[in-house]
Every structure is written in structure tokens, then in C-alpha cells.
Amino acid sequence: MTPLDNAALQEQDKHQLHPLQHPKTHADPLVIERGEGVYLITADGRKILDGMAGLWNVNVGYGREELAQAAYDQMKRLAFTSNFAGMTNIPATELANKLSGYAYPDLKTTFFTSGGSESNDSAFKIARYYWKRMGKPEKFKIIARKLAYHGITMASTFATGIERYHKMFGPAVPGFVHVPPPYPYRFEGEIKEGETVGTAAARLIEEAILREGAETVAAVIAEPVQGVGGVIVPPDDYFPRVREICDRYGVLLIADEVITGFGRTGAMFGLTRYGVQPDILSFAKAITSGYQPLGGNQISDAIYDTIQTAPDTDSWMHGYTYSGHATACAVALRNLELIESEKLVERAQTMGARLYAGLQSLKEFPFVGEVRGIGLINGVELVSDRDTRAADPVLAAKVMKMCQDRGLRTRNVASTLAFAPPLTITEEEVDEIVRILGSVFDSVS
After folding, report:
1. DSSP class of residue 224?
2. Residue 389 sits in which domain range?
3. Could you tell me the sign of the dihedral formed by the alpha carbons of 299, 300, 305, 310, in that order?
4. Which of 115, 83, 156 is nearest to 318 (CA)?
5. For residue 427, how many other CB atoms are within 10 A of its CB?
6. Model confidence pLDDT, tens digit, residues 172-196
7. What is the pTM of this model?
8. What CATH number should be reported for the domain holding residue 18?
9. In 3-state terms, what secondary structure has residue 199?
10. Greatest CA separation found in the chain?
């Protein structure tokens, strides 16, 4: 195939305002022309192994004709119709039925959105609605974690616990409280006698509830693995204790499964690994493997009952134009069939173990502070001093760029290099990730 005019395309791209835009990052952007399996092909003919599966989401890999066909067939029949005011469509109905009890037996009802930010924004509204219906309108605050990422709408921005996302968009939306995350390598809080990092981090949530007043706290929101914050994998004892605390004080638990849902961690949903059920589950990304924009919330039977039994004056006045989009839902149904039939959840376990072992082998380099991961979401944290654990985000950014130049896409999240390739990745492709990263580490040594 003849390479396209890359320079001309980059010039045209100057008319686009990108997400997370900065002149430095978009001065010379990669122009992606197509994808094949785990690889991206640029307009000038370069082949890059996508170690980030797009944006943590292309779980079934690129170029899947099955999903293109599902979209085409549905668009011919009915691309879109409103899901408002007494209407529905067949794919949305079938997908909602498919998802009923899919993650947890008590989460039988789904509200559809167009993506993760909308899903988390909706989760906050669901929590507020529930408590108003329960006669407790003063319960509106949300407890989140530092280094959390929950999206980019106004509410989800200020639920996010990363200051860079707040700075230019204040004043802050009120009602969001942040506590330190269960980050064993860099835990901020005090660990009391008899505590682990997990139980200490959970205690900080309890202390925040008591400090704010349990009568004002609607929910706790948490990612099973904090992705953008640095691929932070919590200790096994963290989420069971958080669930206990939420139950003790009458606080809902929102699981942000936008990154971790549909196989990424080696389980269909990340929180199931800890034996914990949320009251609200937010999902997006891998529900369609990125082939169509779709997200949603699954809600407990108790929450659903408050909506169904509400008087006319308290109706559920929330929705999006593309809630239950027919084409997106048709693609999601076919995508779930692929995840199940190709056993990609199990594949995430085996390929994840191989990737983790390969990345661990790179700890011979003195600037590798920690390797962590679960399933096919892994992080390599870089430091300037291993003894002090001094973070080195400058080195991480440099390594990311060098990897890209050598044919490997990773993402530097602060001082951590993130790896979350498509779940279809082969052993040889996993080894290619480790080989390229190792060669870059050799160069910077």
C-alpha cells in the first residue's frame, strides 16, 4: 500500500482541538491509518505494537470484521432511534437483558450512556436520586481517592483525584472528598499497629465519612485498579473492608469498571476478584472494544425499585441522546460473543502472567522501582533513586517516546509506564513488548 502524505495530514490536523491538548504533544502527531490485530499502522507506513489497546479498551484487537459487519447490518435496519418517552430498540433491549446479572446477581438493570465520563457522572446522579427518594437529600457527597481518574465532565473531573485535571477548570464542583489510595509502593497515610496498607487505606475512607458526617455522604467511588493514576493494584484486603465500611455507615459503593470491565484484569469485572459487590457499576470502553461509543451503569435492585416506585413528580429526569444507541448496542452484543467464545478473559490471565514476568525481568535496571499488575494491565514505575523511591516522570516520558520510535506504544502516567494491550495478544507479541522496552532501557542506561 502506498504511504499517505503524512505531512499534509499533520497540517490538516492543526484544525483539531485534541483531548488533553498541548502544543508539545500534538506538534508532530502519529497519524494512524489502520489497525491489524495488536498493531497500529501509521499514514507513513510505520507498524507500532499498541501496548495500550487504544485507550485501555480495544480488547478484541483491531480489524475485526465481525464487529464491522454487526454495525453495518444494524445500520441498514436502524442506525438510531430515541430511547426516550416510551420507545426502545431491539439491540438495546437485548443488550440490557444480556447484562442483567452478568456481573453480579443483584445488578439486573442497566442505564446506557456514550462513554465512561458520562457513566460516572450518571452514577453520581443515581446516588443523589436514591438518597432523595429515601428521604435523605442531605446525602450528596462523594468520597473518591487521590490519583483516581473518573472522567472529564464537570462532576467526574472533580471526582478525579489528579490536580492537573482541575487547575484550569475551577472553581471545583462541591461535594467531592479525596483520600489517599491503597498504593503499597507510595502509601501516604499512617499504618497503625496491626494494619496492612489495605486496611489502613480503607480506614482513611471511614475517617473521611466520620469527618464529613455519614448523614452527608452518598457514595464512595473506586476503580478496582487505578489506571491513569499509575496502574495501582490494591491489596486483597482493601475492598472487602471498604464494603464493610460503606454498609456500616449507609453509604453506596460505586465501582468504576470503565478500564477494568470485560476481561482486562483476568476476570470479567475487576471488583469480582475481591469478592465484593457494588451498588452501582460504571462501564464503557471494552463493552464494544472501542468499535462504537457506549457506556452505562448497572444498578442494584434496591436502587431500581426507588426509580420504579417514584411518583410522577420525582421521575428519573436523566438521559442522553445516544442512550441505548441501536448500532452501538448491536456491536456490543457481538463483541461480548467474541470475548466469550475466544475465552479472552482466561487469555488475559495467561498472557498477563507472561507480560508481568517479562517486565519483572527488567528490574535489573536501577531506575525500575516497581513492577505491578493484574491480568493484562501492568505498570513499570521509574525512579531516580531506588532507595528513596524518588519518582522520575521525566525519564518515563523519555522512555515512552523512545519506545514509540522503536515500534511500541506505551503511556507514561506520571512516573509509571502503563501496558494494557489487546487481550488477543500472542506470546510472541508479549515478548516483543518486553524486548523493545528492554532495548530502550539499555539505551538510557
Report:
1. S
2. 6-60+343-444
3. negative
4. 83
5. 11
6. 999 999 999 999 999 999 999 999 9
7. 0.97
8. 3.90.1150.10
9. helix
10. 67
